[in-house]
Amino acid sequence: MLLAGCGPEPEPEQTCNGAADLCGRAVDEVAWLRAHNAHSSEERGYHVLSTNHYFAIPTQLEDGVRALNIDVYEQPEGLYTCHGYCDLGRQPLTEVFAEMTDFLAGAPDNVILLDLQNEANKQWVVTEMEGAGLASMAHVQVPGEPWPTLRELIDAGSHFVILADGDEETPAWFHNTNSLVYGTGWAAATPEDLTCEVSEPIDHGLLGINNVLTDPIASPDLADLVNHNPDMIDRLRGCEAELGHLPNLVSVDFYSIGDTLEAVDLLNGIDFAE
Does some domain include residue 189? Predict the structure, then answer.
């Protein structure tokens, strides 16, 4: 006979991307913090002229970033992540992919949106993804069709949604970003330049809101102007009201400055302070 209070421990509540409330939501019903040029970090030794974050991808993922934008370039030695000029900093693409898969190995209840600015031969990139194990964990999304929920993706072992420059010659999971994402532009130099004006909406598309300033390059000081609440969350909610769609990809530089993670949690209706 079991004594009162001595029964089996209750099963822990399942979470998706860090929150139980997100498990039943489709991909386009979730706000994702997107690290713009996620690879270009001070931690990885990138030059100040090409740095977009203090911390590298492993720390970004541990902190709660779940959408990563990386730039891929060809070098004589192979494929690397660079930011404009590889002389200002670079990292082998295989290492960057390993950082992501290592995170997922220890935290399998997560989905990563991986957004590539691909300046390399796309077939080479596909081969690298296959070798790194990303292809076997990549979701295939048909443009115009409803998105699965995070729980459905995780249960299927589909931990990546890959946005790239896919075409008829690449695998179906190597999507073309323009068929799945629409959003605001990148030309803002001051906070007043940030608007909610977007490209043509896409049926079941992901809405990208860029909260990034460049004058003429990114800097911590510029990020400090736009990464704080209430201004950041007010802008995002204003765009949501104006456009009738939850901002999905919230792009930022220097994500660790200000309230970027909190703003996205608030968009998702999650308050971890409670």
Answer: yes
Q: Which amino acid makes up residue 101?
A: T
Amino acid at the residue 244: G
Structure-token pair, residue 207: 């809405």
Between CA 25 and CA 147 the distance in angstroms is 9
Task: Check: CB of residue 37 under 8 Å from CB of residue 83.
Answer: yes
Count of domains for the chain: 1
Report the predicted TM-score, pTM, of the whole model to 2 decimal places: 0.94
Question: 245 lies in which domain range?
Answer: 20-267
**Tens-digit pLDDT profile for residues 15-31:** 999 999 999 999 999 99
Q: Which residues pair with 8 in a beta bridge?
A: none
Exposed e or buried b for every residue in 170-200, given b needs 16+ CB within 10 A?
beebbbebeebbbbbeeebeeeeebebebee
pLDDT tens column, 184-200: 999 999 999 999 999 99
